[in-house]
Amino acid sequence: MSALPPIIADWFTEKGWSVHPHQLEMLARGNDPATLLVAPTGGGKTLAGFLPTLVELAEHPRKGLHTLYISPLKALAADMRRNLTGPIDEMGLPIRVEDRSGDTTQTRKKAQRADPPEILLTTPESLALLLSYEDAPRMFAGLERVVVDELHALAESKRGDQLMLCLARLVSMRPDLRRVGLSATVEDPPALARFFMAGGCPVLTADPGPDPDIRMLTTQTPPPWSGGGGAYAIPDVLEEVKRHKTTLIFHNTRAQAEIFFHNLWLANEEGLPIGIHHGSLAREQRQKVEAAMVAGELRAIVCTGTLDLGLDWGDVDLVIQIGAPKNVKRLVQRIGRANHRYNAPSKALLLPANRWEVIECQAALEAVLARDLDGDPRGPGPRDVLCQHILIVACSGPFDEVELFNEVRRAGGYAGLTRAQFDEALDFVATGGYALRAYDRWQRLKQRPDGLWQLRDPRAAALVRMNIGTIQDTDTLKVRMRQNRKFLGEVEEGFAASLIPGDTFLMGGKIVRFESLKEMHVDVTNDKGRKPKIAVFAGSKFATSTQLSARVLDLIHRRDLSALPSHTQDWIALQREVSHLPEAGRILVESFPHDGRAQTAIYGFAGRGAMQTLGLLLTRRMETAGLGPLGFVATDYATLIWSLHPVDDPAFLFSRDDLVAGLEGWLSENALMKRSFKAVANIAGLTPRNFPGTRASGRQATFSSDILYDTLRRYDPDHLLLNITREEAMRGLIDFGRIEEMLERTEGRVDHMVLDRVTPFAAPLFLEVGKVPVDGMGREALMEMEAERLMQEAGLA
Amino acid sequence: MNDHPFTFAGADLSFRPTGALFWPAERLLVVSDLHLGRSERFARRAGALLPPYEVQDTLTRLETDIDATGATTVICLGDSFDDDAAAHGLDDSVALWITRLMAGRRWVWIEGNHDPGPVELGGDHRADLTLGPLTFRHIAAPGAVGEVSGHYHPKARVAGRARPCLLRDDARVILPAYGTYTGGLRSHDRALTMLMQPGAVAVLTGTRPLAIPMPR
Lengths: 797, 216
Description:
The complex is a heterodimer of chains A (797) and B (216).
Chain A: H1 6-15, H2 21-28, E1 34-38, H3 45-59, E2 67-70, H4 74-91, E3 97-100, H5 106-114, E4 119-122, H6 124-131, H7 136-139, E5 145-148, H8 151-154, H9 158-173, E6 178-183, H10 189-196, E7 203-205, E8 213-216, H11 234-243, E9 247-250, H12 254-267, E10 274-277, H13 283-294, E11 300-303, E12 318-322, H14 328-335, E13 347-351, H15 355-369, H16 383-396, H17 401-408, H18 419-431, E14 445-447, E15 453-455, H19 460-466, E16 476-481, E17 487-492, H20 493-498, E18 504-507, E19 510-518, E20 521-526, H21 546-556, H22 566-578, E21 587-594, E22 597-603, H23 608-624, E23 629-634, E24 638-643, H24 656-668, H25 671-683, H26 698-715, H27 720-731, H28 736-746, E25 750-754, E26 772-773, H29 777-793
Parallel strand pairs in A: 1-6, 1-7, 2-4, 2-5, 3-4, 5-6, 8-13, 9-11, 9-12, 10-11, 12-13, 16-20, 21-25
Antiparallel strand pairs in A: 14-15, 16-17, 18-19, 19-20, 21-22, 22-24, 23-24, 23-26
Helix pairs in contact in A: 2-3, 6-9, 14-15, 15-21, 16-18, 16-19, 23-24, 23-28, 25-26, 25-27
Chain B: E1 4-8, E2 11-15, E3 21-23, E4 28-31, H1 38-44, H2 53-69, E5 73-76, H3 84-88, H4 92-102, E6 106-110, E7 124-126, E8 128-131, E9 134-137, E10 147-149, E11 154-158, E12 161-168, E13 172-174, E14 185-186, H5 190-195, E15 201-204, E16 210-213
Helix pairs in contact in B: 2-4
């Protein structure tokens, strides 16, 4: 099947297009059980994935579902429908293409189950939902191929694990099912292939294309000492927008995107058409921006990760990354968004938001040119996803535990799952676990006399279906205009709760005034002011990767710093002179007084998550040592701790055994753990987020998941969900792995500098947001002093 | 001991960091707003899923306070149960536990707004109770003197930390909620600033009671 049938070959000729070598190669491998195609953005990956389907259906027309296409984005599925329908109509092929996602109407969804199209384009969550219906085997009866798009992105989250479990299930229904995975350039393709298929599969790598044209954006004013928005560079960015046809301006967080967009508009005197696109905006608004973009009506879009993937916009000729990219792989993928044409170099500019990021941007830029991608190896498939999968399977009908166990092990991430682990998950799904055994709502499965498992109450299927998926949005409230109820977007519940009437914040680039909080809605009105209170969206705060951190450390020690702007060169030189430069094989600790407190700055370069954890662990050690720690703040590079008493000899802080012991004790009562637990409890079905009819407010849900956490800790410390939470936290939020990496790298070699004032590298730490207060003797002492002072002043003591 | 001693309406009282009030001369312990069974009430309404362990937590603390003070009289100042149904729906083991605590001492249940009906447990059930100079009732009555009440779950903040607190002035004492997982009302709230005289003191619970001028 390596030749194109005339009907398709003619169409290519007519368009004046030629088929890429890797596309033909994919056609040649059309009958292989599994292939992973790794190609740069713009490499015609999706066509390569679909060609075998088009050829098969052109040569042997048939009815019924033939190919399932799965993408991480709903928008991508919809876009793909347009992209496929065009050529299919022009070739006159008898193929029906439909998309299906959470946005598809109920009527159409029903029709699709009764009479599926030949090609169905969908998302992992919609597929999981389809598999939860009893008629799933009928719907997928004729399925031949599955194409998974943006596999690299799916593999980074639990959505990928859920999808792989679903594929394993599809294979049980259709043993000869063939699968193709499409991925952007990744650091370890064989590992991705093993995730895609237990045991791995052949990898086809397309020509990576020419080097990108990538530089740091030189600005009129140097970047500030701290902060993230990049607002100082608005005029420079606007200049670049004017000079290019279409610019994508990437931000790391939604809040920063909003603020930047707002400031860009204020400076946009020529009224250039500029849009904004991020995950908290109303769908209609995002679609409007996407449509304007496709029509070539926009000169720039301020965006976040929502535009990392997908949508083919050939006209983008510049990508600007605001803020350090944190991770080289993602930067490469973002850069690929410019010049979405194969074999044309992409043009990108990096804009550091503060002084540290100048160094990090330079390091990242060098890594991109060296094609040195980073990434952490993937852990085994998360078991909370498995719990949800068991529930989904139970919804579709009675199941045999041995068959399901074997099926699950065919999913890449679960190849190493033991029977005991599986049984534990099954027991949790069936009973809720030891401490919750007495509660009806968590008794969900029962074993029938014939040994099969089924839902105890078939009506529970509705609740399971409503809660399918692993995407953890923070609890959000919808924002709407008070006058016309127009939906503007969403804000976090915690943020909404902090608002008082009259407060202003940014939403979709507009300043709005908070009026009232009604049920699940934040009512706002337009505000003519110019200074909003900042909207706190869930900004994904990625940690700088290990490889990039190593490059940063390497960079500051170079004899020749001329790659960096002069202000940054001066800053590094001053630090060397006043204190000491952090080194890869040593931990630098600076002690100095400031603001009436003893300050300790620790340069560990282990990434934000790990440095945060280090702050928590070290303050515990300091508490035990009677130093009265009061709080800390962490960045990707350093942790700053303030306390009542100074640290005289920091070496004792970094004993690995003590840190591990501290971790055990501390893990349990930590707020990060509760946040992790909440996600795990949601995914595993312990605390559903959505209920038929009423919806528990996010706050209630938070409350209950926190309390469940405390309860399980006390009465059932080995509960499955606690174990999952612990494992995840160690890798994710807590990132203890990187603390261990730091300890191995430095082996207790500590450079301790005792100084009489703030050092150049420490200064930005004082401006960081996200300070974490520490409760302990220090705080208690402060409270007592404060109470005494208040009583004295009031004349009551 | 870490208690906060004070004289009120001629009685020498002692506020414990747990949130209980002790009257040594009468060997009388007062706690307010236990809200036993709150989790079950929430669990009955769709949505929040509170496990029932808060009952055990609250009773463990109460038992510790009774043992530590050697109280012979215990007054529960209302809202002891989260609602009528919770009182009936108590676990056998919990009911037994309460009965064990009640054994050998005088036990007074003051009616609250959450549990107005009779409780299926022993002890006295009263709308209010006057002992010597002090009157115990659930909700503070305007113009009362020598009154000890609860209901509002007051809390206050010092050096950035908010904690449940007792409020006191010359005429009345308002106790914090003793139950685990009860919310709180900041002492700034009008309901409380209207009740309390100028010069009122807030005493925060915690490892050690902390007295501050009542934040208004």
